[in-house]
Amino acid sequence: MKTKIYEYLAQNKGKELTAEEVAKAIGVEKVAVVKAQLTRLIREGKVEKTAEGRYRAK
After folding, report:
1. Which superkingdom (predicted)?
2. CA distance 31 to 13
């Protein structure tokens, strides 16, 4: 799932998306799961958190 999230953000490079938007786009019902994976991607340096709860690929 982490790969799916990263691929979706990478395809939308430059766009700042919420965890809810990412979850809906990749077909995941539990937003908390997406948020947890986004946190891991941030730690890995692949994703950055921008304004209030928005994320984008680096």
Report:
1. Archaea
2. 21
CATH number at residue 51: 1.10.10.10
What's the pLDDT score for residue 52?
86
Answer whether 23's CB lies under 8 Å from 29's CB: yes
The whole-angstrom separation of Cα 57 and Cα 30 is: 21
Condensed to tens digits (0 to 9), the pLDDT of residues 9-56 reads 999 998 999 999 999 999 999 999 999 999 999 999 999 999 888 999
Residues 15 and 32: their CA atoms lie apart, in Å, by: 21
Residue 19, token pair as written in the block: 């965890």
- Mention every residue, 6+ apart, whose C-beta is less than 8 A from residue 8: 22, 25, 26
Per-residue DSSP letter, 58: -
